[in-house]
User: What shape does this take?
Amino acid sequence: MRLALLGGVDGSWAAMLRAGGHVLTSIWTAGGGQIGEITAGLAAAHRCPVFFHRLRRDDLAMLWQTGTELVVVVGYPWLVPVDPALPAVNIHPSLLPDGRGPAPVQWILSAHPESAGITIHKLTAEADAGAILAQEPMTLTATDDLHTVFARTYWRSAQMMAAILADFPRAWAAAVPQPATGSWTADHPGVFTIGPTTRLDEALHHWRAFGSGLVAWRDGKGQTRWPVAVRGWQEAHGLTPGTVVSDDGRIVTLAVADGFLLIEAAG
Assistant: This one.
């Protein structure tokens, strides 16, 4: 099939497209003019353009002109205009209808592990509400975090999508409507800032669930620093919580009430 990709995928999708003989007609990303190696490789392999602006209704005519048969949305941050004559599907990382919204993985790791999974559904005017073409649960492990869940989602969704594309008319016709509402929604979380009163388990829990960009630390100079990794251990000590034990410019050892945190910054 001829597909337009909105968002981003990993190398497992590149292999799936190649094995199935599918062609990308265009890629739409929110990369702000920058693309990673996977997107660049896909664009080169399929000889398709990459667009950085939000897909508008006027752009749908261009998709038609390039022979696009299906729009595939994977982690695209904007609502997508819907054309009933142009099929579109969204890859959502939760067991819909639970976890509708922009940040399901973060809340699954934080509070709703029973909703871990992947849903491929029809794109509709209402976000995350379309009929379901395929759905698969994911059993979380103690070692899973934001990054592993996304990696697992890419890997499994590529295989699920391969099965859908193998007989797309049948899969589209057999899609099952969703219930009207789920038990919880996945609103975007705010930033969690590590401070003097932060407990070790609290910091590690937030890092596991929310990861880089949503966990911050304010140093003694009032500067906000954005970690790329947070680790720690429990140990009794006589230090005042918030004391910086060591700071080499890249890794900070920070005393908290019940132990120590290692906060690693980009370097």
About this structure: The chain has seven helices and 14 strands. The first strand starts at residue 2 and ends at 7. The longest helix spans residues 146-166. The mean pLDDT is 94.
